[in-house]
Design a protein that fits this description.
Among the domains are: 60 residues, no CATH class; 174 residues, TIM Barrel; 79 residues, Golgi alpha-mannosidase II (Immunoglobulin-like), CATH 2.60.40. It has 15 helices and 24 strands. An eight-stranded parallel beta barrel has the order 1-2-7-8-9-10-16-24. A five-stranded antiparallel beta sheet has the order 17-18-19-23-21, with helices on one face. A three-stranded antiparallel beta sheet has the order 11-13-12. Helix 5 links the parallel strand 7 and strand 8.
Length: 530
């Protein structure tokens, strides 16, 4: 967010205080350090706040009222970082902090790539040209955690973030942390050992600080970062965004339901971090093995029709494959595979209600909370597909849009704020509460059951994924006749449990036997990602 005369972080702090103080309980601020590219993920100084964004005082103001998540961009640094300059000059300590490799080494072909750029970047040094590892781009140079001094450097950085009030440390792209020639260089045992070590260190510093891992990979690989309850406290639920999107594009629950049935409960004390959109695109690798080729291709074609871009990655054999969909989630909901229609807002709200109903902690990307559209001008200006979902609001422009009840921004913001308020009062939405997939005969309905840990509240979360009204047979839910049941969202009371309930297009129901029970959450939720 921007405003003349005030820093973006100060503006964000004010916006949180005025609009979201009683809505969200945690805020993830994207990297706010001096950087050279990738909107903050090529950091050249981990110890400073970028002057054009604000100051440490602004960060501390936010952390005083919100549970703050800070990015630890742990895999790489900017090409302008002092360690890179020291490497080029042959000076300590940076000369020992990067990873050299021979571009003619055939074993590099086994390395898993998240991008189509070259794996190695040539640097001119006092000893002649050298090639160093750069997994993500030529301006994002990987660091060598095989050197214990590098670990100590990052521990110092973590301590600085904690001093500024960080309660959550997000390990960005941590799966690529360790490199070993001859391997695929992703999820290596040394990487998992490093996550365990960082968790142990944080446990000694403050047991209330949590680690969250971001690994945009197939579902089974992502789940491995829970370890044996000794690695991440939370993992990004990366299969959720593309599967929810696909379900709403197709108007069917089958693939989403099949995936949900295969998901184990998070270990006690850990949680899934549920989201549907972020500063990155909608990852496609987490759909591997979960969608058929026809379904997958139909999703890509539909997103391109709605203004989206497809970013590619390079495979070991040199071919390219889709890596992520770059699109504003709000505009991704313009229609279905059949084309655009009039249900964009309802479809979008359904996607968010599904996300906040699931086991775990819900996280709302700020542009989802505000119903922001595709930012095509930004893509033209930067040449990067991800800019399409990184619009920078002017706060006066935003306040005007939110004040007008007829704008989609106001409609989305007000309804999501209302739903979050309802959700926060329900024991059955505790991050570790029981979850059980339901099997209505109607494939357009996605349904599951949540039960509080004390077993004193049940919530049946029911969602119409289609643009047509659908009949729900209440008898299929096995609701107890001895209890009184109500839909928390609409306020409707279910008077006859043997009757059918007509669900409107993209309507969601939270049918419960206990209304407005006291909140019972052991971890803060929901989160805002800014």
């Amino acid at each position: 967010m921007a405003e003349d005369g005030r820093s973006p972080l100060a503006v964000l702090a004010t916006f949180l205080e005025q609009h979201l103080q009683d809505v969200v309980t945690g805020v993830h601020i994207l990297p706010f350090f001096p950087y050279t590219s990738d909107d903050g993920f090529a950091i050249k100084d981990y110890n400073s706040v970028s002057p054009e964004l604000g100051s440490w005082e602004d960060v501390k103001r936010i952390s005083a009222t919100q549970n703050l998540m800070v990015d630890l961009v742990i895999n790489h640094i900017s090409g302008e970082h002092p360690w890179v300059k020291q490497f080029q000059a042959g000076e300590k300590p940076g000369c020992d902090y990067l990873i050299e490799a021979d571009p003619d080494d055939e074993s590099l072909s086994a390395v898993v790539r998240p991008r189509s750029s070259a794996l190695l970047t040539k640097l001119e040094t006092v000893d002649g040209p050298k090639h160093v590892w750069s997994t993500f781009s030529a301006d994002q140079i990987d660091v060598n955690f095989g050197n214990p001094d590098v670990l100590l450097e990052y521990v110092k950085i973590i301590l600085l973030y904690i001093e500024a009030g960080a309660r959550y440390i997000r390990l960005d792209a941590v799966g690529y942390l360790w490199k070993k020639l001859g391997s695929n260089c992703i999820h290596l045992s040394e990487t998992h050992a490093m996550v365990r070590l960082l968790r142990e260190l944080l446990q000694m510093i403050d047991p209330q600080i949590a680690i969250i891992t971001e690994t945009n990979v197939p579902n089974r690989e992502n789940l491995s970062y829970f370890g044996n309850r000794n690695e991440a406290h939370m993992i990004y639920n990366l299969s959720l965004p593309p599967l929810v999107l696909n379900a709403l594009m197709q108007g069917r629950s089958d693939y989403l339901k099949q995936w949900m049935m295969s998901m184990p409960p998070a270990p006690i004390g850990c949680a899934y971090f549920n989201f549907t959109a972020s500063h990155d695109g909608i990852g496609l690798r987490p759909t591997e093995g979960l969608l058929t080729a026809d379904e997958y291709n139909s999703l890509l074609d539909t997103m391109k029709r709605f203004g989206g871009k497809i970013s590619m990655r390079r495979r070991p054999d040199g071919t390219e494959s889709p890596y992520e969909i770059n699109i504003s989630l709000f505009d991704a909901m313009k229609g279905t595979v059949a084309g655009e229609d009039e249900w964009q807002i309802e479809r979008f709200l359904c996607s968010q209600t599904i996300m906040m109903s699931l086991e775990g902690i819900p996280a709302f990307y700020i542009h989802s909370l505000l119903g922001t559209r595709n930012y095509h001008e930004g893509v033209t200006a930067t040449g990067h597909n991800r800019t399409i979902n990184r619009y920078k609001w002017n706060v006066d422009e935003l306040e005007k849009a939110l004040a007008d009840p007829d704008t989609p921004h106001a409609k989305v913001f007000q309804e999501l704020s209302r739903l979050i308020g309802i959700r926060r009062r329900q024991r059955a939405f505790h991050p570790n509460a029981t979850q059980y997939t339901l099997h209505p005969l109607n494939p357009a309905i996605f349904a599951f059951w949540r039960q509080s840990m004390a077993r004193d509240q049940s919530i049946f979360s029911i969602h119409n994924l289609s643009n047509q009204p659908q009949e729900l047979q209440l008898s299929d839910l096995n609701l107890l006749d001895t209890d009184e049941w109500i839909d928390l969202i609409s306020g409707d009371r279910l008077m006859s449990l043997g009757a059918d309930y007509l669900i409107q297009p993209y309507q969601s129901l939270w049918i419960t036997n206990k209304v407005d029970s006291a909140a019972d959450v052991s971890t803060p939720d929901p989160f805002l990602s800014e």
